[in-house]
Amino acid sequence: MSDDLDQLIADRKRALDALRPLSEGALAQLQTYYDVELTYTSNAIEGNTLSHRETAEVIEHGITVGGKPLGDHLEALDHYDAVLWMRALAASETPIGENVITELHRRIVLRSRPEIAGIYSSHPRRIAGSPVIFPNAMKIPALMAELGALIEAAPPTPHAAFDAHFRLTAIHPFGDGNGRTARLLMNLMLIRGGYPPIAVRPEDRKDYLAALEAGSLTGDTDMFETFMASRLLATLDAYLAALAP
Fold first, then answer.
1. Is this prediction's pTM over 0.70?
2. Is 172 noted as a catalytic residue in this protein?
3. Under CATH, what is the fold of the domain 3-243?
4. How far apart are CA 57 and CA 51, in angstroms?
5. Tens digit of pLDDT for each residue in 44-68?
6. 8 Å CB contact between 200 and 45
7. Which residue is catalytic, options 73, 79, 165, 172?
């Protein structure tokens, strides 16, 4: 992440902090919008077919969308519930460690994939079309314990949040839902630090996956950090525009 981008984020963060304490009504409306946005975008880039409006209808009104798979509805409900749990956790002083990661995953696939909820995979994991090779399944428990300790000791900064996201996807400990879990983990850490959560949009998918793949293949995560920092900057601008008097 460039120094210029880092400075822009710091400037926007100071501007957001200057608006605190935020109006509870305005903040609640903004959070509700972004919670649906986080659910729609995170599921959409993984192949969920519900549109933004359909996702909102499923979450807010319990409406079943005709012609759409039951699994897509369950994914929307699961993810939204996980977002609400994540926000409550962010407002507490509970340490963020390995158990939080597994609980995030459990909630994200609770109804859609209950057989793998919160459970590390014992099988090889691959992404179709990607040359990235994930660690042997036997190494997952040790790698996740190490990641949990690292996150628990990390400062509440964007760099630490982006790093946690990347490391979790690089381990890829679960049979499914790794990306969704990594994005919620990142956003949990961002909210703890006073930042807004980031939505990785469907139109960002190609660049996002390319940045993750480049980091895994080369060990250089600058492309990924720059991508996420750009999304954070855009989100900060959106929050400021919505909340400024």
1. yes
2. yes
3. Fic-like fold (1.10.3290)
4. 10
5. 999 999 999 999 999 999 888 989 9
6. yes
7. 172
